[in-house]
Amino acid sequence: MKIHEDIETQKERYSLIWLEHEFIAPGGRFREFYYWDAYWIVKGLIASEMYTTVQKMIENLASMIERYGFVPNGGRIYYLKRSQPPMFSAMVYEYYESTHDKAFVRKMLPIMEKEQEFWNDKRMIDVRVPTGNFSVYQYRTEANVPRPESYREDILSAQHINENDRQRFWRINNQFTDIASAAESGWDFSTRWFKDSGILLDIETTTVLPVDLNAFQCWNMDILEYLHERTGNKTQSEYYRNKRAEFRDTIHHVFYNNTAGSWFDYNLRTKTHNIEFYASIAVPLFTGCYHSLNQAKSESLFKLMNESGVFNYPGGVPTSMNGNSSEQWDFPNGFSNLNHMIIEGLRKSENAQMQDKTL
Description:
Elements: H1 6-9, H2 35-47, H3 51-68, H4 88-99, H5 102-122, E1 124-129, E2 132-137, E3 141-142, H6 151-158, H7 163-170, E4 176-177, H8 178-185, E5 208-209, H9 211-230, H10 234-255, E6 256-257, E7 262-263, E8 266-267, E9 272-273, H11 283-287, H12 295-308, H13 336-347, H14 352-357
Antiparallel strand pairs: 1-2, 3-4, 5-8, 6-7, 8-9
Helix pairs in contact: 2-3, 2-4, 3-4, 3-5, 4-5, 5-9, 9-10
């Protein structure tokens, strides 16, 4: 798709955000880009050897970071309060691995670091767990009104509750909204973000520390280390190597549950892990955010997934095993991006049984 030139010169008349280059929109009904979908679109374009198209898509997203400091959820002005899972660095990495275009990577590296600054400044939180104090990432979107793109749905969700509860639902006192923060996660919606009642009115996204987001950020540090090394900046490469090693330990302390043998989301209200199965618990395998010599971690996660029965469905691994939910990002629905990360995480393992499961 190509944004019409009128949108550049008459921005006040359109909700679309101007982009210089053509792009691929996900699905068949959208006219705008969506952030984390773009990573898997890029993977497909690379498999098709459409490297120029990949470069243009990356440059579009880079322009978002240069303009706004981050990549918005999608290509509409009403998405400018929130992002989505940070996959920009991963797209640059995938492009480099296929083209070895160091000049392009050198141009992108400052922009990759600028996006990291956004997540460090706007989406980090300090947490105390039994093993110490740590800084981790969470989805946390500034908003005090219903989502513009789903205004009717949000109004209908709140219309049957009293005024005090409605204020809590929207968090109107200039606080962060759990509804918009769940949309920032890409998982809108899932019981993953709900209290024990399992209903949308009890959403508490900003109380949840998401394991997948932190695994993505761990991967981004790894990518920055690697690409700085590839382009000859040993100082920055070493900086990110140390940051990644430190953050890998943080992920272990905050998200790993030794009893259950897996990574899980951590709830700030209950000060416990949510040990229900969600496909997000496999993302550290995909990003390699654990000591590679510690195969016991990957094997225990594989055992948990086997015992949960998530491999028993011909359509792929479900997003969750919560059969009482009517939310999109719950059982029985499965999503190709989540299944891709699970397959790749198992494939990268040194365990032959885990590798065989991907076939």
